[in-house]
Structure formats: C-alpha cells, structure tokens
Design goal:
heterodimer, A: about 90 residues, alpha+beta, 2 domains, 4 strands, B: about 350 residues, Rossmann fold, 7-stranded mixed beta sheet, 11 helices, 7 strands, about 15% strand
Chain lengths: ~90, ~350
Amino acid sequence: MPLHTLQLTDFAWLVLLIIIIIYMIYDLYSRRPKRSITYTRETLVCTKCGLNVERDFEPGDFIGLVKGKCPSCGGNLKIKAIYSIEKTKK
Amino acid sequence: MDVSTIIQLIWILLFILLITGLNQRIQLKLWVFDIRTKLNTIRSLLEEDKAKTRGMLRNLGVEVPEAIIERVIEFFTIEPVEIEPVDIIKRMDHLLRTTEASVRKIVSSHLPSLGRHELSLIESSLSIVAALNIVYKVIRHYLLTGERENNFILIMQLEYLMPQVMRIAYTYHEALDSFMYGKPVGDGAGALVVYNLIERSEVKSRRVVDDTSVVEAYYKGRRLILVKAEGPGSNVGHPGAVISRIVEDLKGSINLIITIDASLKLEGEETGSISEGVGAAIGDPGPEKIAIERAATKYNIPLRALVVKMDLKEAITTMKKEIVEACERASILIERMIEELTPPNATIVIAGIGNTMGIPG
C-alpha cells in the first residue's frame, strides 16, 4: 500500500501519537511552579495620632523601631509590621 | 515500504526492548539526565548563596570569608546514643547547646567587634547555606550511587522525589535574603503574638535568661509571665528551660501555661489559619518541649497550645501579610482564653515559640 493511500487505522494511530505527545508537553509545562517576585513592605503607625504609613523595608529595620516623624502631627512613627507581598510573573 | 510495515516494525522494536530490558536502561538514562539537570540547578543556587554570604562577610571586614563559610557549612552534630534512653534528653540538650556555642565561637572569632544581633544574622545565614549544601550533597550521593550500580529503583525514587527536593532548595535559597537582612520570618509568629501581648499589657519587669526574654506584665487583674526568644536578632532562645525554671521558682503556683507557635499546614489548609489545642506547641528536637511537659505535669498545670498554620516556605521566608494578620487575631484569641480559663489574680505563663528575628523584646 503506497503512502498516499493511508488507511484509517494508520491515520488513527498517528493522531493518537500526536495527541499523547502534545498532552505530555502540556503536562510538563503546566506543572512548573509559577515564578514570583516578593517585595518586603512595612507598616508604620504614629504613636500620637494613629496614622498608618506604608513603606519599603530597609536593612536594619525591625518591629517596634521608631523611624521618622508623622507627616500629619509630627509624632513618632513606629514600625508595627514587616511583611512580604508576592507578585506572580505571567 | 508502506505505513503498515513501518508500524509493524515499531511494534517489533518495542517488543524487543521490553523482553531485553533495554527500555529500562533508556528510562534510567532519561531520569539520570533529568536529575543531573536539577542537581546542577541546586549547585548554582548554592554557589549564588555562597557568593552572597562571601560578599556580606567581606563587607564586614573578613579577609578570607571562604575559610569561615566552609568551616561552618561542614560543621556537624552527632546524635546521642538512642539504644540507651536514660538521660538522652540531657545528652541531646548538651550536644545542641555545644553546637550552638561552637558555631557562635567560630563566627565571633573572625568578627570580634560585631554585636550579638549582627552575629546571629550571620550564623543563621550560614545555617541556610549549610542546609542547601546538605541537600546538594545528599542528592549527588544518591545519583552517583544509583548510576554506578545501575540501580533502577533508587534512580526512580530520586526522580519522583526531585520536585519536592527542588521546592525545598528554592525555599532555602529564598530564605537567605530574609536572614541576611533580619526580616521577620513566618516561624516568628509565636514571638510576634507575645510581642503584641507585651505591647497591650501593663509591663512590670523585664529580664533576659538563657537568650530568652521574660516579661512580667498585668492584664485584667491577671499576672502574665511572657516568654519569648530575645530579639530582634535571629534567635530561638531556650523557652523550655526557662519555663521550667519559672515554674520551679514559683513552686508550681501557676494557673495556666499557653504556648504559641507556627505550625506546618496540610495541603489545602489556609495560610494563617489558627487552631487551639492541648500540649506544648514547640518544634525543637526534644529538650525544650519535654522541659515544658515535665514542668506542667509535675504541678498539674493545664497546658494549652495555639498554632498559626503555614507551609515550610512561609515559615522560613519573610512573614507574609496573612500571617501578620493571623498573629493579630491570635493575640485577641489568647486574651479571650485568659479570661475564659483563669480567674482574676491568676498567674499565667505565655510562651511565643520560634525565631524572633526582626521582633524585639
């Protein structure tokens, strides 16, 4: 039987093989963990008026550290929380 | 040659491969290739982390940082003899404390002018590199053994373990940044809850015992003894030994002991979910946990536990916002537990377990 007279069963085998290969490649890539970028932020609270200010973390910072003055009342700004925020790459 | 003949030949080839076992050889080679690729990734992560640590030590004035890095990351502790259980906790505690002191001595001998806070960050950063180094060396060992002995089963197990191993390797790699800059990590949830309680209570006295901070405070007529590792350096303290000492000093006149710790969540559980229960919530190798259990049992003191759930990555990398919020909720829950479980004038020991990096007190 020449190539141009491909039988239905042969064609079905070929299609099945292609589907399996495509599925395996898809499965391999879909299981890869998504890469993400994390940023470290900190929340500062004014000890006088209670104003919340959010800033980027700077080396040497720790919770409870008094850092700067309140833009609203001039009171002390104290670090209340340091945390990471995740942004997933597409 | 037509298509049917080609397909028939393919089937015959597959049959030959199956009966001669050659298919397994091909599979083995494919797995070895995949594991080696992943192992090279782990090695590049390790080299990157070593370079970061080298840079940090050079900035602090160490001329040959390689010497200190290699010495600390190859440091080991031999487990105590287990077939003789008598005094095993004492022996284990001794070995753990000796390890801690020895690593500290190695680091401080190279950096004599550095403060405790900075030294603790360097020690922890080196521990992270050491952990990644162990992962790399163990995987390399099994890969080479499996390859040399053509051990299909060993290589297969390794291949199926690799995704988990890679996740752990990436976790350690990401954790290094938090430890180098002293950012609070998820494991510090217990310490953060106790810090929040200290901030809200009427503090009477503060002292540091055995790298552990002990704060005496009052809350709604109850005497609180708040225990956490001394911060804000990278430190887990010795909460078990300190609680045991407090209980003995007060001759057991304590109404309640509460321990708060970060706990590894099961897949599907939400990060930052809180659970309460009974027992000592502490994940040390044994000495600290048993000290709390023994002290509570000796004087029949109720031992309650509270855990904040997270996965391994969240536990050793910078604290996520969900965990910070969970700690706030946990502090409120502790206050409710105090009011529900103890009468006014009661004495309560509350211990925040975990690494207190970035959390003072």
